[in-house]
Amino acid sequence: MSIVLDLGGLGPADIAAGPSALSELMASLHVLAEPEHHPEAADRTARAAAADPGLRDELAVFAPLWARFRCRLFFPRALPLTADLEEELAAVAALSAGDFLDLVAPGVLGTTALPVPPARELRAGSAAAEDYVRRCLRRSYARAELARQLVAAPLELRDRLLAVLRAAATAFFAEDWRTLRPALEDHAREVRRRLATRSPADVLTQLLPTAVRVGPGERVRLDKLQIDEVRVAPRPLVLVPSARVWPHLTVKYEHASCVVVQYPARGTAPADQLSLRDLRDRLMALTSPARMELCRHLLGEPITTSELAARLGSTEPQVSRALRTLRDAGLVRSTRDGKLVRHRLATDVVRRLGDDVLATVAR
User: Residue 222 in contact with residue 205, Cβ under 8 Å?
Assistant: First the structure.
């Protein structure tokens, strides 16, 4: 599954790159709400949660807005970009009831699989509003309650959300942002320098380890749990580097103002992130009992094909085919030693699949 971005027609002036304090706050709140996705941040999120129990409860109310779908409200909608949180919050405070509804209602529902009526139809008591609340209820009670409050009094919910975001900034985010912002701004300047001399598709494939160019023209495929093709122009493309979004990559393209890609900045994610295809190939390679047995022999020391065949009671061609599958998946490394080629399990690669996988191979 993937999203293909068609970048044809975009020039350097049509692409903006820079950090967003509001987007970074949203990424931090996602980590706080779903720590099981972010074990590397367990200590930081635990401290933030313990800092203010009242704030923790309020953040739980609004958690659907920064769950996997990510509400469009938290991403830039206008250029030039600003990395100042108070300026971004002021822009949210200036939204009309209709604009706030249009931005937030899809985020409360949390999926693009179901259409969301426009704000003018989401009037309290209307059939469209009641149907919208029912669809949110099918997703969760928390989403339904938030939907009821949104439909009944959008501006009151807007002001309550702003109070929660400001409280989160005071409690833990402001200090974090002072540390993160300089490096993100340096990264964005480097991205802008690249865009001045290289095509947008080239720059995106350099920035995003799992992005690949596809077909003719300026088209880039991104691994996402969505299937869509998005022509960006005539809208601008906004690239938002983040220190807290990994392992996620967020693409927001439903708003008329711009297409936004929030991605892990360099140094905040492993350099060798897998594509979905690579992950599938590695997992499939280990589903064969014969290849798993071969991996167990390769764990202790480098072994030749002929020795493996003798140990396994198999033929060399059969072992060679199994080795090729494992090697193509990155699970085995082969090195030449004079006339001999020796093979060994890539334990560092297997470990990244999980400790249980490595323990199963090793036992």
Answer: no
